[in-house]
Amino acid sequence: MDPTDIARWQFAITTVYHFLFVPITIGLSAVIAGYEIAWLRTGNERWLRLTKFLGKLFLINFAIGVVTGIVQEFQFGMNWSDYSRFVGDVFGAPLAVEGLLAFFLESTFLGLWIFGWDRLPAKLHAACIVLVHVGTLFSSYFILAANSWMQHPVGYEYNPTTGRAEMNDFAAVMFNKVQLVTFPHVVLSAYMTGAAFVVGVALWHLRRARTDADRALYRPAVRTGAWIVLVAALGIVVSGDVQGKVMTEVQPMKMAAAEGLYETEAPADFSVFQLGTLDGDEETFSVKVPGLLSFLATGTPNGEVEGINELRERYQEEYGADPGAAYYSPGDYTPVIPLTYWTFRLMIGLGMAGAAIAVWVLWATRAGRTPLGRAVLAAAVGLPLLPLLANTSGWIFTEMGRQPWAVFGLMTTEHAVSPGLTTAEAWISLLTLTAVYGVLAVVEVRLMLTWIRRGADELPPEVPDDAGDDRPLAFAY
Amino acid sequence: MELTTVWFSLIAVLWIGYFTLEGFDFGVGMLLPVLARDDTERRVMINTIGPVWDGNEVWLLVAGGATFAAFPEWYATLFSGFYLPLLLILVALIVRGLAFEYRAKRDDDRWRRRWDLAIIVGSFVPALLWGVAFANILRGVPIDADLEYAGGFFELLNPYALLGGLTTLGLFVTHGALFVALKTDGEIRHRARGLAIPAVGVTAVLAVAFLAWTQQQTGTVGSAVAFVAAALALVGAGLAARAAREGWAFLGTFVTIALAVAGLFLALFPDVMPTTLAGGTSLTTTNAAATSYTLGIMTVVAVVFTPLVLAYQAWTYWVFRKRIAVHHIPAAPAPATAAR
Fold first, then answer.
1. B75/A164 CB distance under 8 A
2. How far apart are CA A19 and CA A394, in angstroms?
3. ipTM for the complex shown
4. pTM higher than 0.90, yes or no?
């Protein structure tokens, strides 16, 4: 492999890995903030116990999200220096603002929340976790604005003297129409992921519960979590639908690649699955929904959807014949079709399966029922995993669907890599990070499972105020 | 003042924030096996930085992001050029950050010892390598006419750069020892102060040598003033430590690091990354900068939000201002066994 391949693998591995933890951080911080506020408003101790229990799981997850985020901030410069030079004027700004507005907020107020249980008044303490959540939303907004610019560059001018894209409209970059649909889609997916995690954990404990007190503790977590999963899933469908239409407009090739649609069709069908080579030859077997692709892409069941072959010709006229000769034959502007085809379906299918399980959980736990069968165990394990895999599929789809471009229409991936990057350096970096991440994954999952099994602790006895400064810390590393 | 100069100064401020704050975190981490005699004492030390270390590390991320936005060419050349040292730093920061969060989460000696090692090594590596990296920036590295780093890994390990590394190492160890002395009570407090006094002496020798060498290379009047003031602050820190004035002593190393970093940036200006190649191009605040439009937007954001960040970070330190002693550490709350 040449340095570009290795750098791409590193970006894929580190980013997918990082984004396994990030949605849980976003979603779970919202749920925990909700529970702590519920405790403040009702005085019911079960919300406090859930807050503390989920808080411990949150920290195990948050820590690994934070440390893998450090790599994200620097690998643009390390592996993608030509990209960094070219886009820094536009792309660097949201990244810097993200650090200043979001990272400081998250980390500082999380420190206050963890260690502040007996140092801060209750309302202020709850405000800290709310601010942590606000920080995660800021972070999502700015990093997604940066990514949206790569999908659909706006608010810039190309300067031939410096050879750089230079920003001339910050508002256009911040309110890119791709961004305006991507942000709700991604954040709702994060809510679904975080809530699905809560449902999984609480459902497992509900099934094991031997006392009414335990059932009274975990049932509300199961039900609130399942409702959030369901409502978020509906929002994901709506935002995803709008996103499909924006994508058809600004990146028609990606939509064509999502279906493996070679020839322009009106109406265009959507194949639920297809057995065949996906290379434009006749498919051997497929299950099709008539007109669905037209509806996803254009909003009408008869709308015309452009095919890969037409688009390729159009792109050749517009961008010339060289998308990066090492990867693509001259004039080829087509992403890897089987990958975009299947990741698109996995994203939708796995997300819908998660929503279906949430519906079942709500039904099975209605009116005080406690289901005990094996199906509950499957739901408890499956529900948290489905949104995680759907998120991953969605990102692989949207990033691979943009190829061969790093910045759509402006810079191909091949031209983005650091020119001085040697194969040896790239390998050292990829192997080191992959090995470290692999070990940490094992450590994290084992630790998470240990703390999930442990369940919510009883609340500690009240410490009399006269103990003063000699009290043990409420939380200590 | 030119916007490029404003941003050069702001990036200096971000690095000052990073080194003065995470500097003592690194020191606390490196001194874990030196100052603590048992697990409870190690936990005392870790808990002194528990609520703040992550917020301190964000200064690095913002410095990185701000460099990307304000000086894209600097960001690109620096991080693609200093590739392997930066990778080492990243790995160190990853395992170290996780160690703080994970070490107390299982009641198992081997588990804790491994994470202790991660904290110690993960603090040592960046404490040394940041000094090496900054010294190389000041000294200049081979950068060709296309602004690409044209050197190798071993060129970065020259005597001047290694002295720079030892200087940051010494400063952070001293800074950390004084932080432990300031934030703990009992025997560990006295041990920390006892260690800080000779540490100030050793660090002073290293720092004076490194700063004088820097001054002789690229110094200006401004950097000379900053370096002399930094040295005086370090002497002050030593005297305050001897007089058992821990607050003043810690303030002393804080000011030392701030002034030393400020002096390095003054000695660097108007270059941001000078070249040592005859036909090469030095990166400067002008040729590495973003457009004035981007810098203008960023200036507004920075002016509004930096004071806010400083205010709430300062408030955090106020909330957790009390000293921590052995009797504050609760019994390990962790499950004894791993998941099966």
1. no
2. 11
3. 0.92
4. yes
